[in-house]
């Protein structure tokens, strides 16, 4: 493991932390990183470019002159491609540039990019960006200048660090991301990566574990009735097949168990795919072949979370006899 010093807002060492070797000390696969970055940039394209063909340009319905006897080449419309103001041949049309990249490839590319930065000592950890409960862009700039003299910095923060966010958001050449937004492209664009200690812990814990910690911190610990109700819910979900964890899309969503199984087959019956943002109801065409990445109680709950019916609304309207 690589050990990194933890610096306080004054720039002094306040401790150290071990960077896991499985994330910050792996082989950098350059072709894999290239493929993931190309896919990410392609997905960012709007693809709204459009040109008009001769059939879409207004006018040109009348034959410009008679077929024979003029000595000129025969023409049927002034909107043909060879005329000024005519249509465009094989011009760009609206299209979707996004490429489907498996999640394991994205994660492997991110690990390779972080490992490359760690090998050259370009990973920094701070206990906090500023001291106190008041934001200070000047203090944040002075602290970041102490870390590196290189130009481009990527600052990774935890979503709860509002003071730090306000302190660094207006700094030039500083790109700010949440811990759950860290990606290969932004890591490669930055010369140095600066984590806060809370952001690094959230990143290493992963999105599911972070959601569990946030939910546990928000729960009222002093209410005995609430604790008893949660215990009852846990027992019921255990009987149904496992512990129910919120899927990140509200109370009507649940994270899948190992293999994509539903944590409660009676309550959660609608499958959701996070990559395509499509949902499948029980009995629909692709329901059995789809591995759920999130479960919903109803199709309405999935639609409220931003998911669309796979194959259109008609494909997800399953008759009772077909179920």
UniProtKB/TrEMBL annotation:
Gene Ontology molecular functions: rRNA binding; structural constituent of ribosome
Pfam families xrefs: Ribosomal_L4 (PF00573)
Start and end residues of each stretch annotated as Disordered: 44-101, 234-266
Biased composition (Low complexity): 234-243
Keyword set, alphabetical order: Ribonucleoprotein, Ribosomal protein, RNA-binding, rRNA-binding
Gene Ontology biological-process entries: translation
TM annotation in the entry: none
Superkingdom of the organism of origin: Bacteria
InterPro entries: Ribosomal_uL4 (IPR002136), Ribosomal_uL4-like (IPR013005), Ribosomal_uL4_dom_sf (IPR023574)
Coiled-coil positions: none
GO annotation, cellular component aspect: ribonucleoprotein complex; ribosome
UniProt keyword Lyase, yes or no: no
Basic residues composition bias: residue spans: 60-71
Keyword rRNA-binding: yes
Family as reported in the entry's similarity comment: Belongs to the universal ribosomal protein uL4 family.
Subunit structure: Part of the 50S ribosomal subunit.
Function: Forms part of the polypeptide exit tunnel. One of the primary rRNA binding proteins, this protein initially binds near the 5'-end of the 23S rRNA. It is important during the early stages of 50S assembly. It makes multiple contacts with different domains of the 23S rRNA in the assembled 50S subunit and ribosome.
Cross-referenced NCBIfam families: rplD_bact
Protein name in UniProt: Large ribosomal subunit protein uL4
Gene: rplD
């Amino acid at each position: 493991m690589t050990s990194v010093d933890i610096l306080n807002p004054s720039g002094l060492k306040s401790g150290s932390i071990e960077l896991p070797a499985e994330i910050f000390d792996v082989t950098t696969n350059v072709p894999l990183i290239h493929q993931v970055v190309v896919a990410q940039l392609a997905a960012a394209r709007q693809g709204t470019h459009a040109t008009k063909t001769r059939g879409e340009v207004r006018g040109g319905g009348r034959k410009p002159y008679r077929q024979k006897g003029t000595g000129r080449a025969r023409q049927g419309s002034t909107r043909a491609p060879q005329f000024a103001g005519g249509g465009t041949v094989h011009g760009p049309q609206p299209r979707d540039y996004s490429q489907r990249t498996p999640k394991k490839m994205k994660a492997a590319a991110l690990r390779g990019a972080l490992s490359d930065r760690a090998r050259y000592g370009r990973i920094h950890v701070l206990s906090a960006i500023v001291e106190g409960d008041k934001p200070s862009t000047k203090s944040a700039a002075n602290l970041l200048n102490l870390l590196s003299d290189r130009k481009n910095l990527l600052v990774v923060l935890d979503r709860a660090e509002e003071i730090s966010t306000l302190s660094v958001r207006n700094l030039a050449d500083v790109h700010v991301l949440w811990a759950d937004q860290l990606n290969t492209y932004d890591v490669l664009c930055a010369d140095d990566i600066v984590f806060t200690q809370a952001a690094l812990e959230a990143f290493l814990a992963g999105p599911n574990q972070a959601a569990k910690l946030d939910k546990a911190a928000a729960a009222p610990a002093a209410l005995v009735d609430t604790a008893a109700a949660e215990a009852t819910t846990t027992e019921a979900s255990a009987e149904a097949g496992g512990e129910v964890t919120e899927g990140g899309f509200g109370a009507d969503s649940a994270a899948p168990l190992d293999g994509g199984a539903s944590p409660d087959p009676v309550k959660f019956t609608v499958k959701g795919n996070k990559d395509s943002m499509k949902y499948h109801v029980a009995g629909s065409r692709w329901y059995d072949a789809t591995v759920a990445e999130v479960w919903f109680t109803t199709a309405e709950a999935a639609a409220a979370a931003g998911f669309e019916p796979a194959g259109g609304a008609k494909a997800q309207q399953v008759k009772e006899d077909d179920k």
